[in-house]
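User: Second chain of the day. Same drill as before.
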Amino acid sequence: MTSRERMQCVFNGEKPDRYPAYEHFWGEALDKWQKEEGLPEYAQQDIDEFFDFDIGNCGGFDLSAQLPTEVISEDDTYKIFRDSRGVLAQVHKSESGHTPHWLETPIKEPADWWKYKERLTFNEDRIDKSIFDRAKLMRERGRFVCPFIAESYEQAWPVFGQVQIFMAMIEEPEIVKDSMDTWADLTIQCLDYCINAGLDIDGVWAYGDMGYKNGTLFSPEVYRNLIMPAHKKMVNYIHDIGKKVILHSCGQIKSFIPMLIEVGFDALQPLEAKCDQDVRELVKIYDSQIVFVGNIDVRALSADKEAIKNEIESKLAAFDGRWNYIFHSDHSIPQTVSYENYKFALETARNFLAKR
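Assistant: Same format as last time:
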C-alpha cells in the first residue's frame, strides 16, 4: 500500500497492511542521534522521508495580522522578537519543547479586538506559493498530503494573552466567539483559494492546545458555546471538499472528546499518556467514532526494548478489528529516546499487523 492508501483504510475502518506512522522530533534528539548514534547526516534534511512516514506536511498559511517583525535582542540562549501578530515573545534558542514566553500582546483589553480584526482579511500574500510544490512532491511520494495550520484558539490566545482570553470568556464572550469565527473564516478563505488554484491535498492537520496536565484549559461549556462553532465551520468546509481533518491538542482533553466527535474531527492527536490518557480505555468508550493518533508514552520509549514492546503491542492490540489508529508518540521525541530505541519502536509498530 502507499501511504495514502494506508491512511484511507484507517479512516474508512478497513484493515491496512500496517498501521500508518508519523512523528515529531525535538531538534536535540536528531542532533544527538547524528553526532553520537549513527543517524545519517542527510537524514535530518528530510526526516519524514528517511523514516518513510505516511503523512506529508505541505506547509501552511499566514493567518497573522501581517504586522512588521523585529528582533529586539538575541544572545546564545534567548531571542526576543516581535512577530507578525504583534506579539512580543522570548524563545529559548537551544532547547525544544518550550512554549514561548509572551512578553507583550497587541490586544491590551478585549475591546481592542474589533480594531485588530480589520487586519485579518484574505489576500494572496498569505499564501506561500511553495505549498503547491511541496504538495506535489508529497503526492509523488505517495503520502497522505496535509497542510498544517493553527486552529482558531491557537491563533487567538497569544494575541489576547492567556489570562485575558480566559477572563474574556467569562466577561465578554461575544468577543472571544467573534475571534474564533474570524480565524475560521480566514482559514477557509486560504484553503479555498489554494484548492481552486489546484492544491492537491488529502486532509488538514489543525493544531491547537486546549489542555494541560490535569485537564482542559476551559470548561466544556465554554468550548461548546465559543469555540466549537468555529471548529464546526472549518471542519464542515473541509468535509465538503472531500478531505479529512486531524486535530492536534496537547494536554488532558478527555472531557472534550464527545464534542470533538460531534464537530466531525476525523482524528485526534497526540493523546498525551503523561496526562492520564490511554487509548486502551478510550477505544472501548468511543469504538471507531474517531481515529486515535499517538499515545505511545515517551517514558517507555526512553526505557528498554521490553518496555517499548509492551507499550506498543498492548496499545495496538486494543484496536484489533477496528483499525482506527495511527502510530505516534504521545507528543514528540526528546533526546532521552535513543536512535536505536526509536527504530525498534517504529519497527515494532509496523510489524504488528503482520503477526495478527
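The two ends are 18 Å apart (CA to CA).

User: Great, on to the next one.
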